[in-house]
Amino acid sequence: MGRLDGKVILVSAAAQGIGQATAIAFAKEGAKVIATDINESKLRDLENYSGIQIRVLDVTKKEQIENLAKDIERIDVLCNIAGFVHHGTILECKESDWDFTMSLNVHSMYLMIKTFLPKMLAQKSGNIINMSSVASSIKGVVNRFVYSTSKAAVIGLTKSIAADFIEQSIRCNCVCPGTVDTPSLRERICARPNPDQALKDFLDRQKTGRMATAEEVANLFVYLASDESAYMTGNELIIDGGWSL
Ligand SMILES: NC(=O)c1ccc[n+]([C@@H]2O[C@H](COP(=O)([O-])OP(=O)(O)OC[C@H]3O[C@@H](n4cnc5c(N)ncnc54)[C@H](O)[C@@H]3O)[C@@H](O)[C@H]2O)c1
């Protein structure tokens, strides 16, 4: 018996990294997963997993979200994982960087939750899991100005949804990883002027001497999606190998 047997779970940003690992972990525990992303070719890697259906979705596009909602009868868990890391202080953050980051990291969650919450309310149950970060209201991290701002907003959004709908059996939590070894992290390291030094800097700040794997973060998503965590709502769950200690 799987820990998520019978649950219908919608995952954004499932084509790679934490979203992909999470979609696979959900399916292994018996969930019916709707794995979405803007990257159709990478999303196709998930097609062979039993229990996963794929769907192209840009979470910044209201019309696409509403069209997807029309095709989904029931949704038990909504996982908002899509996000983007801008590198720099406020001085390097152009208005377009601000707008793009806030749109993808925060406004997308507003659109997704606003669209799918009514279905959960009609079902009289629902579970929302948002992706935040330790780089947020939890920890000041250099060169993560707009990213940290957006991820702090996710924590506020999460607590607000949890407080507003707790009596209607809706729960809402967010996950706050430290540094996770994913394709986009590797790309960001390679884009630095000295990639070897950039990798060393990332590892030096890890008290465990290593980054998290996407699978370790996925395991936390499984716990939050399952009924094992039924009494948890409004929490920011830190998974950072002690980085924020
Ligand atoms: N990797 C880390 O160290 C780390 C740490 C803390 C939090 N996070 C957060 O975890 C989430 C996933 O990070 P990752 O490193 O696993 O991901 P990633 O950057 O490797 O992959 C992101 C995925 O999002 C998809 N995507 C981009 N724009 C989209 C859009 N508009 N609509 C739908 N999908 C879109 C991409 O196609 C890609 O498949 C992000 O929110 C990120 O901020 C990551």
UniProtKB/TrEMBL annotation:
InterPro entries to which the protein is assigned, alphabetical: NAD(P)-bd_dom_sf, Sc_DH/Rdtase_CS, SDR_DHRS6-like, SDR_fam
GO terms under cellular component: cytosol
Origin superkingdom: Eukaryota
Pfam families listed in its UniProt record: adh_short_C2 (PF13561)
EC number(s) reported in the record: 1.1.1.104, 1.1.1.30
Reactions that this protein is recorded to catalyse: (R)-3-hydroxybutanoate + NAD(+) = acetoacetate + NADH + H(+)
Broad enzyme group: oxidoreductase
Alphabetized PANTHER family for the sequence: DEHYDROGENASE_REDUCTASE SDR FAMILY MEMBER 6 (PTHR43477:SF4), DIHYDROANTICAPSIN 7-DEHYDROGENASE (PTHR43477)
Keywords: Cytoplasm, Lipid metabolism, NAD, Oxidoreductase
Metabolic or biological pathway, per its Swiss-Prot or TrEMBL entry: Amino-acid metabolism; Siderophore biosynthesis
Gene3D superfamilies hit by this protein: NAD(P)-binding Rossmann-like Domain
Quaternary structure annotation from Swiss-Prot or TrEMBL: Homotetramer.
PROSITE patterns reported for this sequence: ADH_SHORT
Organism: Crocodylus porosus
Main location per the UniProt record: cytoplasm
Record-given protein name: Dehydrogenase/reductase SDR family member 6
Location in or out of the cell: Cytoplasm
Protein family membership: Belongs to the short-chain dehydrogenases/reductases (SDR) family.
UniProt GO MF annotations: 3-hydroxybutyrate dehydrogenase activity; 4-oxoproline reductase activity; NAD binding; oxidoreductase activity, acting on the CH-CH group of donors, NAD or NADP as acceptor
GO BP terms in the entry: epithelial cell differentiation; fatty acid beta-oxidation; siderophore biosynthetic process
